[in-house]
Structure formats: structure tokens, C-alpha cells
Amino acid sequence: MSPHDTNVAALEPSIPLIAPGHTYTTISDKVAGIVVTEPQPKSWKFGILIGAIGVMILNTAVIYLFYKGIGIWGVNIPVGWGWAIINFVWWIGIGHAGTLISAILLLLNQQWRTSINRFAEAMTIFAVMCAGMFPILHLGRPWVFYFILPYPGTLTMWPNFRSPLLWDVFAVSTYATVSLLFWYVGLIPDFATLRDKARNKVGQWAYGFFALGWRGSARHWFRYETASLILAGLATPLVVSVHSIVSLDFSVGIIPGWHTTIFPPYFVAGAIYSGFAMVLTLTIPVRKIYALEDFITQRHLDVMAKVMLATGLIVGYGYIMEAFYAWYSANPYEKFMIYNRMTGPYWPAYWALVLCNIVTPQFLWIHWVRNNPIVLFIISIIVNIGMWLERYVIVVTSLHADFLPSSWGSSVSWRNLRPRKTSSWPRKKSMTRATSRSMRLRLFPWTVSRKRLGSRRPDFL
Amino acid sequence: MSEIDIHPRLKQLGRNGWKVGVASLLLGLVMALASGGARLFFQSYLVAFLFWFGLALGSLAWLMVHHMVEGRWGFVTQRILEASSRTLPLLALLFLPYLLIGSPQLYPWWGGVESLAWHGINYHVSHKLMYLNPAFFTIRAFIYFGIWLTLTYFLNRWSKDMDTTRDPRISLKYRWVAAPGIVLYVFTMTFAMTDWGMSLEPEWFSTIYGFLFCVGQGLSSMCFTVIILSLLAEKPPLSSYAKPDRYHDLGKLMLAFTILWAYMSFAQFLITWSGNLPEEIKYYMHRTGPELKGVFTILIVFHFFVPFFILLMRGVKRVPATLRTIAFYILAVRIIDLLWVLGPAFRDNHDHIFGSAVEVPITLAVLAGIGGIWLTYFVKQLTQRPLVTAFDPRRDEAFAHDHHHETEALDHA
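ok -> C-alpha cells follow
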């Protein structure tokens, strides 16, 4: 290349956001055609089948849960939070990518968002619905879930306003409302297109109803843009606030491993990280099945991979800070927490999470990886798993061995995480595990000294 | 290369800044020695150093962000950011007296276990002496500055090369260094602040502390860049690039970092307050106690609410002179924040920013002292290179659609 060649595009060709040769008409035909005219591909039916089976399994599990109680998850004191809270945090985190794409990227004038924002917004709504389910399932008496809402009832019973669990109720319900509105407002012009293209009366009527009389006039578009901006302004703080409040569920307590000041930003980064992983997990197959490669180009995948890399690095920073300051704190309980995470009974979970969340995204530095849909799909799956493990590690390993010597045996094992047919709390097995745990303690002198510390708190406390 | 034409006020600063600086530093030193010893001088020195150093290192961070995202705001400010990053060698020199003379007097862990005991610090802290000891502390400082200076060197050299060779491949090199560079910056800054700031109170710790300083640096250096840009852009060549839209972008970044600072400070406060653990809560007990309650309130109101509501308005972000005033204002509250964070750490009972009335003029003198010297050096660096890069295909690409965007874009306030 001559040094005077000013074309930087020749160095790293930037792929356009929409493949060349498209007009408004061809885009409309393609996008609307998927909904109203083209027959659904076989793989769509297959996907629905898988989804339906999944929902049936969920229903069965929930019925069994209501019948037996939350003991089927293997939770018990001190690990009172298990399955449900892990899933809640995981799902709510996934939703954040949608809000980031639709709100923050709109404010930042990022043009690439328009090809994927609908996906991401729809994903957000369903993710929030999934998330919202778990705290209710976790309640001992789910039928009185409305007790968590502050309402002036005859019981004159108010929730504790100082509890982050109550803030969660507000944060998540606000989030769900704004996300739904955002999604719907964005859909209005598309509903109008679908109305015009619909082939039967029912479709025309239903799409027409939701299109709110959209005719595409300049005034309509002006209002549409204004409404989108206002909603973006409202949703932007929500991207940060919802997961910050979720992180406060943990960090306002004093459990080592929960109580640390980096939690709010670190949770938000983790949420966006897992959310982008999920957008990729959904986008890559859909793009293939519906032949949308012209609209969701390599460039979109590349940009999403970069966002994943950046947020993955922040999450990695969070892990390293947690570990370093646990040591630096000189607090024996903090030190024990991180030592126990790395070498205790849950070490496979911790190291698997490091592998999934810190090591795997490093491949995204490579241009080739970011532009290979299959590799990207695999990485996105690994990150999804890693982010679930992260919440598992935070919830379970921090709780299972806190301040009391009585909780220095392990309580929830991998096997306990699946529903059991036998009694809800298998004492005998738990005892066996506690014994094997104390035998292991003898092998680690340092841990034994922790145990000798007994219930006596160190003198500085 | 011919002398670069800059704003007369900056020129004046470049000529006389160092004289005022050296005089103030000496004045500060004399006042300190006369009223209680070198310790008083170095307390103020750390605060002043971190303030000016934050402008330089924050600029380096913004420069790397710019090379990664290649936004239009970055091409307008690139040379200002580069000039301010090139002051890092001077700051490394200015750190030396602090490292050699100041730190032994200020860090309670410097003398080992006996020193901790003498300061009445709990014995369990001696566990940290593996990390907090003079040798390792010095080695780490060298590593931090080594990394920062290396990044500065390459980013600046390539920028110069690009002007002369007109080789577009350099823009790829930028990307390759900038992305890992940001990661390195956040890590080194976190550990540097653990060393220089957090370890003043060796019992206390907070995982967000380092990152909070990164955000503070980002905010102050952005404000500083806006001030310099608004002065330089009164004339060509910058005047043709620094349009209201660019100030709008920079103003948005100032707003974003004001919010980020408040968010993280509040996170640290809320979690510490609700946990109420003895080794952590002390930090806030001292800083929100009867003596410092007022400063705490000032920070909440004037470091967050006031700039937040002002910067929320679209109009103020688009007028250079107005945005400059806000930038000056934010820099002033940044100093108060630094004093509030670091000041109490120097006192025996940790509940004052200043131990005695004489420390106020000492602090002001040292702030002006390091500032004068630093600003002279900064202006010298600024005049060494043209204010706009001579050649950058990325810039041409970014500005190619400028007109299109301006007509189409709605108000993204």
C-alpha cells in the first residue's frame, strides 16, 4: 500500500449497516413479509415445539414446587437463597441489553441499533417476565405476593421501606412498564405497515387497532421521534438503577462476599454483558433462519461482540477487585470467603465462572472471532452459562459458610439443585456431607485454624 | 515548526505560570516549616498533586477512548488531550519528592508494625504489610508511571508520525494500543489510589474507591479540555471544527461523568452506611461528623445537583463561554471533593480537613504551586504541535456525514 493511500477502508473494510441495493420498499417487503405473507419455515415450528416443551416442564416444576415447598431446591439455613434468586438476577440482567440498545444507543446516535433493537426490546420484556416470576415462586406463601406492595389495607401492614427487596419491587415493575411502552411505541409504525399488508380481516383489524390510526404523516413521525426520545431519557437511568438495586439486595447486608462497594457498577456491567450474550444467542440463529443477513450484517455482530468484550472486562475487573480487597481487608471472614470460593466445596463453580466469564471473552479481541457467527454463538452460550454461575457463586458460596461455626459445613451441593422425589430435606445425606467436610478441613490447616477460632469474634470487631 | 498561535491568556500562562508556581511552592514550604514541619507541606502536596495529575492522566484515558470510538468530539480535542498527557513525565518528577520525603511521614504503615502500633492501629492490619511496605510501594509507583509513560509515548509519537508520513495504517496501531491501554489504565489507577490514598487509613478499604478516582479524573480532565478548547477555538484552525455540536458532545460527557461520580459515591456511601461495620463505617463517621457535615452537604448539592441540572439544559452545552464557566466550577468542586476524601485521613482524629488555620493557605499555595508549573509545561507542549492533526482519514470519515447528521438529528439533550 502506498503511504499516500488515504483510504482507511482498504485497511479494515467497514461493512455497511445494511447490505447494498436495498430501498425502503424492499426492506418493508422483507420485514413485513416474514409476519404476514411468507409461510413460516419448518424450523419455526420446531422452535415453538422446543419452547412449548420447556414451558410444560416449567409448569410441572412450579406445580410440584407449590405442592412441596421451596425445600425442593435444597435451600435451608444458612443458604436461604438459592435457585430462585439466582434465576431472578440472571433473567433481570439479560433484559438490560435491550434497554441499553434501545435507550442509551439512541441517545448516543448509534445508527447500528435499529437492526437489532426490536429483538432486544422483545427479549427484555420476556426476560423481565421470567425474572419477575422467581421472587414470587420463592415466597413461602406466593398467593399473598401483594403484601410486598405498599397499599393502605385493613391489615395496616406496610412493607419495610428500608429493604432493598422492596426497592426491587418498584425498580422491576417500573422497568417492565417502561420497556413495554418503549417496545410498543417503536412498533406503532410497523403495526401500520402490517395492517396495510394484512391479507385477512382479523389481521387488518388487530394490527389496525394497535397501529392507533398511524398514517405516516410528518406530524406522526415528529411525535413518534419525540416520544422515543422521552422514553429513552426515562429508560436510561433504569439501565443502571435496576441492576444496582438488585446488587443492593446483596451488598447492604454484611455477609462477606455480598457486602462490597463495587457491587452496583459491577452488577450493571454483568447485566449488560449477559444481555448482549443473549441478544447474540437469539440473533445469530434468527438471522440465519429468516435470511436477514442483509439487515443484521457482520458489522452488527462485530459491534455487539465488542460491547460484550468491554463489559466482560469490567466484570473481570470486579472479580479481581473482590479477590484483592478481600485479602487487603485483613478481615479473617473476608479472607476466608475468597479462599473458600476458590478452594472450598464450590471451587468448580468458581473456576468454571472464571473460565466462562473472564477467559472466554478474551477471544473477542480477535477480529476473526468477532466476525464468525458460529464461534460468536458458542461464546455467547458460554457467557450465558458463566453469568448464571456468577450469581450461583455469589448467592451460595457467600451464604453457606458465614460467621457461625455451625454453618461451616456445606449445605447445598450440585446434586441438591435438582428437584427431589424424596422428602424435601434429606437430613441423612446432609449429615454425611458435613462429616466429609470436616474431614477435609483437617487437610487444610489454615481452614482448621478458622474453625478453632470458634464463635469468638476477632478482637478488632 | 513555527510557533503555534494560541490564546493570549494561555500564552501569558505559559510565560509566567512557572514563576508563580515556584514562588507559591516555596511560600507553602516556608509556611509549613514555620508552623509544624514538612508533614503539613506534603499533606497539601498530595492533594494538589492528585488534582493536577488527574488532569493529565484523565486526558490520557480520554485520548485512548477517542482512539477506540473515533467520535467527532475526539478529533477536535485530540491535540489538547495529547499535550496534557505529555505532561506526565513532569508529574513523574513531581512525584519523586513526595515519594522520597513525603510518604515516610504520611503513611502510618511506612515504619512497619511498630509504626502501626504507635498510630493506634489494630494489630490485624499488620497482615497488609506484605503489600504496604516502602520497597513494594516504590516499585509499584515505578510500574504505574512506567505504564502510563509508555502509553503516552507511543500515542504521541504515532500522532506526530501520522502528520508527517500520512500513513493511514497508524490508525490501526492506535486501536491496538488504546483498547488494552484503557484496561491497563483502570487497573493501574485503582492500585495507585489504593497505595496513595486508601492506605493513608490502613484499616479502611472499599472496592469501588479506585474506580471512583478514575471517574473523578475523567470528569476533571474533560472539564479542563473544554476550557482549553473554548479558548483555542476562537481562532482557526480549531474554529472550523469546534462547532456547537462538538461542545454539546463534550457537555454530555461532562454530564455523564457528573452522574457517574454521584452514582458511585452514593453506592459506596449507601453500602458502607447500611453495613455499619466498624472497620468501614469510620470513614464516613469522620467525613459526615459534626465538623464535616457541611462539606458533605456541599458535595451532594454542588458536586451533583447543581451541575446535573445545569448540564441537563441543552442551551448551556452549546455555548462555549457558558460551558467553560461550568467547567471551571466543576474543577473547583473537584478540589473540595479531593480535600474531603484525603484531608481527614491526615488528622489524628480524622474529623477535620484542616488541622489548623494555617493549613488553608498552605494548601492553596501548593495547589497554585504545582498548578503553575504544570500549566506552563502544558502550554509548552500545546504549542509544539499544530492544534489539529494534519492528516487523519478517520477524521475525514467522521466529519463526512456531519452536515447530514446536523440536519437530521433531533435534540438529543
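Chain A is about 65% helix and 0% strand.
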